Each structure stands twice: as structure tokens, then as C-alpha cells.
Amino acid sequence: xxxxxxxxxxxxxxxxxxxxxxxxxxxxxxxxxxxxxxxxxxxxxxxxxxxxxxxxxxxxxxxxxxxxxxxxxxxxxxxxxxxxxxxxxxxxxxxxxxxxxxxxxxxxxxxxxxxxxxxxxxxxxxxxxxxxxxxxxxxxxxxxxxxxxxxxxxxxxxxxxxxxxxxxxxxxxxxxxxxxxxxxxxxxxxxxxxxxxxxxxxxxxxxxxxxxxxxxxxxxxxxxxxxxxxxxxxxxxxxxxxxxxxxxxxxxxxxxxxxxxxxxxxxxxxxxxxxxxxxxxxxxxxxxxxxxxxxxxxxxxxxxxxxxxxxxxxxxxxxxxxxxxxxxxxxxxxxxxxxxxxxxxxxxxxxxxxxxxxxxxxxxxxxxxxxxxxxxxxxxxxxxxxxxxxxxxxxxxxxxxxxxxxxxxxxxxxxxxxxxxxxxxxxxxxxxxxxxxxxxxxxxxxxxxx
Length: 450
Fold this sequence. Notes:
The chain is of the alpha/beta class. Helices cover 39% and strands 14% of the residues.
């Protein structure tokens, strides 16, 4: 079986020039030409362990309490951050989230085999925990090795800041977050506030916050925690591995991913690539990136076969976490889409809101970003690109409780420009039995025909 000896190695490597390498404890985010880096593993060493042994190891560790391997991320430590000391791992046992069989909603869409990977069922309520446990753990390791890191910072549309603040608080490391003022939900704002981060609400959008945090990282000795730091991808790639593990190591036909800064697209692709190369699976799924029509730079580039990419000024969208006009991980995402025979599609504000409402009526409780992915899934089923018998997994990126204001406004019919199809506001009545009974029976008949 696999052991935890430090024979497994990983390093930063330039996407454009593989000869340019950096150790993972170096403060570096881009290559010499300003391009993105990636974390590269010593695949020759990993290949010495047969695929069947990796499967057995991952199964053995899952949901157990041997530190830190019970985590969905750290149970795959050799594939994530192999050289870190276990004492410096900062984990809240993230991952192992529910793969929800959306049987009723799937029937509504015309699918026999629709699943949602509920990544919001984790410590801070979003998939961002998976990447942040890796990044903050590496920072703790760097500090233990004597590296001068004053604090960790991110720009965020909400979920990244929550994850950074929680994991930094767990590690005792100062955290700084930059948020676009008035453009994230109250639930998202209060998370970093409660966890003790230094919170800046700036009069700009996410892209403007990103420019500020990059300057702070470059000039002031603050470590950058956004997804241009490829350490985050190492944690997020475990989503794909976990999905296949939950299907008894069978690969689904489609993975549908909401896309904003686009790190998740390349992350899931990387997880599948590693499983394929190391013999755990024999094929790749097709990847769909779902964008909000109000913030759709990847979709616009896809329409031109990726020949031209132009950053846009993202317009306000209910899917606020993906309201990004200049995605950092664009090139990585394009590579993933092309290699995985992928598709990029978009959803309007009305489409995403109704997708959430219809799915919620079948027992789900979706964030608006998941609504984008569900609306896109419906489009691809309707036009025949996804077949009724295909196994489809939609990545649900955050818990719906972070977006109750969106849901309340939908059911109160207060969303501008949207005529809610399934509004369900509370029925306000006096505490009179006969009036309550008559209304109740009428509503049962109207809604259920019973």
C-alpha cells in the first residue's frame, strides 16, 4: 500500500515554459512572462503505485479520523500537497459532500440520471473551502519554515472571502478581504466579519477589487489567496475525484460547472486528467461551463472558437459570485474545454431564477450560480446535445442559505424584470380556524389537485 513518505513531490511550473519551475513555498504567482503557473506533480513516482491501490487507499481514508486524512481533500494528500508536514495542515474536514440524485427534477428536464454535487454542504457553505484548505496550509508551512508572510488576502464576490477568513482564523494567520460594496449577500458579508478578517468594502466590482489585491500582494508582503494562485486548484480538483469515487469509480458523461473566474473548470479537468493518467479511470467526461448572460466573456470567446478573447464589463447578475468580466483562469479553462470536448453556454437572469425555483420545488435549495448551471443543462437537453440517458452531474457551488435575499425577492415577485413562475409567499391570515381551513383546502386543490 501507499505510505506517507516524502518521496512524492510537487512544484510550480510555467504553463508556457515547463523549464521554469519554483518550489511551492516560494511567493510567486506568475511566470517570468506574466503567465499563470500550475502545480505539477512527479507523475513518474505516483505511477509506481497501481490505480487499484490508489482507489483502495482513498476508500480506506474516507470519513475516518486519522489526521488529516478524513478530509475529502487531505485523504488524497499525495496528489495534492505531498511534502507538507501534517502538523501544518489546516483542515475542517472539508469535502465528502453529498452527490444528490435529482430524480424528480431530472424527470422534469427529461433526464434519467441527473445528479448535483452539493459542494455548498461544507464548512463555510461553498466549494471554496476545498482550495483554501490547501492554500492556508501551505502558508502555515511557509511560516514554519521561516518565510516572511504578514497576512493572506483575497478579492472576492463573497465565498472566497468566507473560506479564507475561516481557514486563516483556524490557523491564527491574519486575513484581509476586498469586497465590492453592496454587491454581495448579507450572509456572505458577515462570514469574514465574524471570523475576524480585515474587511474592505470597495466602491468597485470584483475586477476592481482584484486589481487592488494584486497591488497589495506585489508591494506589501501580503500573500495572495485568489485563484490565480494555483495552490487553490489542487484542492478544488478533488471534486472530480470524489464524484467518480461516489459512482464506484465510474465516470459520468457530463460535468456542468458554473463559470466566473473559471478556476473550477480547470480544477475539475485536472482531477480527471490525474485519474486517467494513473489508471483509476479509462475515459474523460465532457465538460460544460455555464455562464450568466450578464457576465459571459468565456461564452463570447467560445462563439468565436476561442480565436479572440476580450474582457468585458460584467453587468449586475443575480449570480453575483460569477459576475466577473476578466477571468484570471481563462487560458486554463479554454485548454480544459478543448481537451474535454466541452461546451460553453449561457443563461439569462429569468432562466437562472426559474431554474432555481423549479429545482427547489423538488427538494433542492439552490444558490443562483447553481441555477445558471441548471438552466444551461435544460437548454442542452432541449436541443439534444445532452441525451436523456446520459449521466449528468451539475456542480452546485454554494449553499442556498447564503442567498436567502434572492429567494425571498423571487417569491415576493420583487426581482426586477422577472415575472416569477412559481412564487410561494406566506399566506397571511387571522388566527381563525374556519378561514385557515377553507384557504388550506383551496390551496391543496389548486396546487396538487387533491
